[in-house]
From TrEMBL:
InterPro entries: Restrct_endonuc-II-like, Restrct_endonuc_IV_Mrr, Topo_IA_Znf, tRNA_endonuc-like_dom_sf, Type_IV_Methyl-Rstrct_Enzyme. Gene3D superfamilies: 3.40.1350.10, Bacterial Topoisomerase I, domain 1. Residues 187-225 form the DNA topoisomerase type IA zn finger domain. The keyword Transmembrane helix applies. GO terms for biological process: DNA restriction-modification system; DNA topological change. The keyword Transit peptide does not apply. Keywords: Membrane, Transmembrane, Transmembrane helix. The chain crosses the membrane at residues 6-31. One of its GO terms (cellular component) is chromosome. It holds the Pfam family Mrr_cat. This is Restriction system protein. One of its GO terms (molecular function) is DNA binding.
Length: 226
């Protein structure tokens, strides 16, 4: 006969053999959940601190201005915007030990930047007598764009790298300030041809374009429509 003490000992051994692995599995699961939540919190903080959401609302001209100011604070000289039309593939031209041409692509979130941007900025190198070319976007790049950039030696800065870039520099003029104070590029109403003007409303946090012939024409569009 097995005495009561032996039975209790066997029960405890079996209990620990089955329970301990479950405790370990549960602990690992909780740690993974915590790390995932921590990474999400860090990503959210980067979004807020970098002002990337304000960049998403900018038009192309505002984005170019913001990048220009950012690069100046990094010590790049002669940072200048090229003409809006006939820019020969570069939106910004800058110098720091060597001349660099930059193509700025303010796209809608998750709209992939394709090979055309790579082709344009690569063609700008000989025109501006530059030694390097960059493409900077608030979005991401297509696989084709990555492949072509590697072959052409074009440097790509996507949304994540741009956020890191901003956080490292901590610019004096934030993306929000640029969005609120720098005038976007002029454009005309697609319905009546009148000029569009920047408007805002107390109940609307985002600035927008409205037709100057209002109330005869009630066309509106976001600043980042182009």
């Amino acid at each position: 006969m097995i005495d009561e003490g032996t039975i209790v000992s066997i029960f405890l051994v079996v209990f620990y053999l089955f329970t301990f692995p479950l405790v370990i599995v549960g602990f690992v699961w909780l740690m993974r959940k915590w790390m995932k939540l921590h990474r999400k919190k860090q990503a959210f903080q980067r979004v807020i601190q970098s002002g990337i959401r304000s960049i998403d609302q900018m038009d192309g001209r505002q984005f170019e201005y913001f990048l220009g100011q950012l690069l100046k604070e990094l010590g790049y000289r002669s940072v200048k915007e090229t003409k809006r039309s006939n820019d020969f593939g570069a939106d910004l031209v800058m110098e720091k030990e060597k001349k660099i041409v930059v193509q700025a692509k303010r796209y809608r979130y998750k709209q992939g930047v394709g090979i055309q941007a790579i082709q344009q900025v690569f063609a700008a190198i000989p025109f501006y007598q530059a030694q390097e070319a960059w493409v900077v976007t608030n979005s991401f790049y297509t696989d084709s764009a990555f492949k072509l950039a590697q072959v052409c030696g074009v440097h790509l800065l996507d949304r994540r790298r741009l956020q890191q870039f901003i956080l490292e520099v901590n610019p004096k003029m934030t993306a929000q300030e640029v969005y609120e104070n720098v005038e976007p590029a002029r454009r005309n109403c697609p319905l009546c041809g009148s000029s569009l003007v920047v408007r805002s409303h107390q109940e609307i946090t985002r600035r927008f374009f409205g037709c100057s012939s209002f109330p005869n024409c009630r066309h509106t569009e976001p600043l980042n429509a182009s």
